[in-house]
């Protein structure tokens, strides 16, 4: 549990360092001792998160202990995905600039190079307006909205949220951090490839994507050690 909490703080710092998360967005991990709970920071910019900021929530997004500090408003994203997907152990919700265009145009976000395989074969787009109308504030602020998003995610690794950002679900904190960093590089490279080619882009095949998704329990690669060092954290 101590290493899990340390990884969660480190993952927040790495995501901030790489510009995947700015002052908004959040990373969570399922509680290994209570599968019906998850852990995430209080509402704080990811680059400032410490272990003292971590809070535990149930799968309705309710805090397990009374606490005067504010939780993230969009914690229901995490609660609903952990509820729907028992195998998912870590989740990031982000507003990364590079993925935003793919949430509002007909060009799908897909893996165009090997490191981005962990975004999965398909990245569906969830539009909050489809179920909740065109007068929401765009945020996922209750379980009904979280469950709607989780339904669109389905069995995929990643979903985009129209005009908002995305969500990426994976095996553990280092694995989701790795997938998130390469998701961003992939989105930027894919945008460039589209612009350079007029849309004639050779994407990875479905089998090539699947071959790049790490099995649960896979040890972090050399990037984790390097990224920990970049943010001044021991691995
Ligand atoms: Zn958001």
Q: Short description, anyone?
A:
The chain has 235 residues and is α+β, with helices and mostly antiparallel strands. It has helices spanning 2-17, 75-84, 128-132, 143-153, 173-197, 206-210, 222-230, and strands at 26-30, 37-41, 54-58, 90-94, 125-126, 158-161, 165-170. The structure holds zinc ion (ZN).
Architecture blueprint of SSEs:
Elements: H1 2-17, E1 26-30, E2 37-41, E3 54-58, H2 75-84, E4 90-94, E5 125-126, H3 128-132, H4 143-153, E6 158-161, E7 165-170, H5 173-197, H6 206-210, H7 222-230
Parallel strand pairs: 5-6
Antiparallel strand pairs: 1-2, 1-4, 2-3, 4-7, 6-7
Helix pairs in contact: 1-5, 2-4
The structure holds zinc ion.
Structure description:
The chain is α+β, with helices and mostly antiparallel strands and 235 residues long. The chain is built from seven helices and seven strands; from the N terminus they run αβββαββααββααα. It has a seven-stranded mixed sheet with strand order 3-2-1-4-7-6-5, sandwiched between helices. Helix 2 (75-84) crosses helix 4 (143-153). The chain is globular, with a radius of gyration of 17 Å.
